[in-house]
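Lab channel / #folding
Pinned by the channel admin:
"Please post every new chain as: sequence first, then the structure tokens as a reply. Keep commentary short and put observations after the output so the thread stays searchable."

First post following the new format, from NK:
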Amino acid sequence: MGNDTHTDSTRREGHDGTGPGPITPDGCAVELWARLPVGDAPDVIEAAVPAGATILELGCGIGRMTHPLTDRGFTVTAVDESAEMLARVREDVRTVRSPIERLVLGERFDVVLLASFLVHAGDETVRQGLLETCRRHVAADGCVLMQREGEDWHLNVPRESRLGADGVARIVSSTRVGDGVNSVHAEYEFPDARWTHTFRSRPLTTAAFEQALTDAGLTVESYLTEDRTWVRARPTR
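Reply from TO:
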């Protein structure tokens, strides 16, 4: 049950990935994302929005959050630019293939979800497009939920964390490559496979983050988690 509005698979500048299986335009490995645990994200989202809400999930990947949210009674429209990612999303979910920053559905949703630190896009034009897509698709009385990087995300490197019972994720480096932009290199290891991911990220202070939302017609309503990485915003115009 899907719409395909994009057929360009060109790699995004500054993004790359290695390892088994398809690699998406932003350097993500489909097979890796199929292994990554979803964590507490569905719980955070469920607690922050009305029961049964309609959700536009921007950058859904293989459906790590899509499926738990659907199973909890939300109606999810899942958007991604990668056909290989969307192929992993269940057939009972509506999918749309498109770059987020160019998405125009002509619809509004109770909730627009922009997770995976996408708001930290290195290209400011892309970030502006992401936020405008959020504002364009959120209902007047709806909300936008975003996931942002922690305050020390680019400073606390290298670091590593466990992925389930047998995987390890490492943020190896975060290196300045331009005006306010870092190139981040990550590695993921399992007993049977290894992946790398290199991408560009623009660190944002709380003030800069909130100003970017203001410029797009959104206002931060509350920070939903103690580490202030999950945020709920409302439309202002």
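NK: The helical segments are 30-33, 41-48, 66-71, 83-86, 124-137, 206-215.
TO: also worth noting, Residues 38 and 64 are 6 Å apart (CA to CA).
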